[in-house]
Amino acid sequence: MAAGNNTKHSIIIPTFNRPDLLRRILSYYDSCGERYKVIVADSSSEENKALNSRVVTSVSNLNIQYLDNYPVTLNPGHKFADLMNYVQEEYCVFCADDDFVTPHGINKSVDFLEKNRDFVVAHGRYVFFHLETNSQGEQRFIWESAYTAESIRSPQAEDRLTEHLSRYFLPTIYAVHRTDVLKKAYRELINCHVSPILFGELLPSMFTMIYGKMECLDVFYMARTRHEAKHWPMDLREAINAGKYDEEYAKFRDCLATHMNRQSQMDIEKSKKVIDTAMAAYINRHYPLKSQAGRVLDSLNLPGWADKRISRSYEILAGRKKIRKQAIELSPGSKNYEDLEKIRLHVLSSLKMSDK
């Protein structure tokens, strides 16, 4: 592997009660031949922290800073905000303990940011993977197509934020960031008392767009474990129904509007209107049943199974098609085969180790 600017970036790995996965991702980077700076932020139970500590000490080729002072009940948004205080390198990238951000993708992103000072975020193309078990109990590794990230290059902060928020679907926390900008974003999440449950992902992502552009490179960047949809303790729909949305959204909007004013000199009230419009498009995209059918369904207090069945029928009638992930077949010599095959073999090898 060609050496990159690994002394200029930190790889941040938050972990929570998954020692086998922490071992898997650390051994992956350990096998890549570079002494990467890695920060492990652990909010596991005491029992799993003991296991994770042994995992960390078993790794020899990485420069690991192990932070185990986080309680199991700490919200991820507050955890991320605190751990950013430990990042000293110019660039940083988050990697979930069950995913893989490739060294090649990180190096290409850092190189791009080094040469383009008006950009604050860079990443590339993503894929999903999962293991499928047949009736004989045999497991098959499957690659699947993932979301396609797009660059945001407008010179105007309000245009970048509008474009990013209105079509947001990709958690850009996993991209390479300029550390100073991401530190400021998480500091504002805390200082503005923005809800980490409702806006802990959105605020840092939108904040970075106020301060610079985002590039999506034509490079394989990240392999993500495919999960079934997760349910957060409260999503925007539930916050609206519970009467908690307006107050929490106002903190989110006011924080962004203040920085929009500082960066672009746009009037605060006009900045708020820009954010309101973009947020309306975001909600319409991700919660399209809220305006009409969704409110009707909520008022009926139907059993969960009936609510879901009617919602699916409405989606079909409305002509909204669910995007299906497509399996990807790879062959030696194909583009990115080497990086993808390394991850596949590593996942399978780690699975065998955990079975012993």
Task: Give an overview in words.
This protein is of the alpha/beta class. It has a single domain (6-232, 330-355), classed as Spore Coat Polysaccharide Biosynthesis Protein SpsA, Chain A. It is built from 14 helices and 10 strands. It has helices at residues 19-30, 46-57, 76-83, 103-115, 157-166, 179-191, 196-199, 202-211, 236-241, 245-264, 268-286, 293-300, 304-317, 337-355; strands at residues 9-15, 37-42, 63-67, 91-94, 100-101, 119-133, 139-145, 176-178, 213-225, 327-328. Strands 1, 2, 3, 4, 5, 6, 7, 8, 9 and 10 form a 10-stranded mixed sheet that branches. Helix 6 (179-191) packs across helix 8. Residues 290-323 have low confidence and may be disordered.
Question: Can you give keywords for this protein?
Answer:
single chain, 356 residues, alpha/beta, 14 helices, 47% helix, 18% strand
- Helix segment count? 14
| CATH class bucket | Alpha Beta
**pLDDT < 50 runs, ≥5 residues:** 290-323
Largest sheet, in brief, is: 10 strands, mixed
Beta fraction of the residues? 15-25%
Percent of residues in helical segments? 40-55%
Distance between the termini: 31 Å
Identify the quaternary structure here: single chain
Radius of gyration based on Cα positions: 21 Å
Rough outline: globular
Q: What's the architecture, going by CATH?
A: Alpha-Beta Complex
Q: Could you say what the CATH topology is called?
A: Spore Coat Polysaccharide Biosynthesis Protein SpsA, Chain A
* Mean pLDDT rating: 85
Count of β-strands? 10
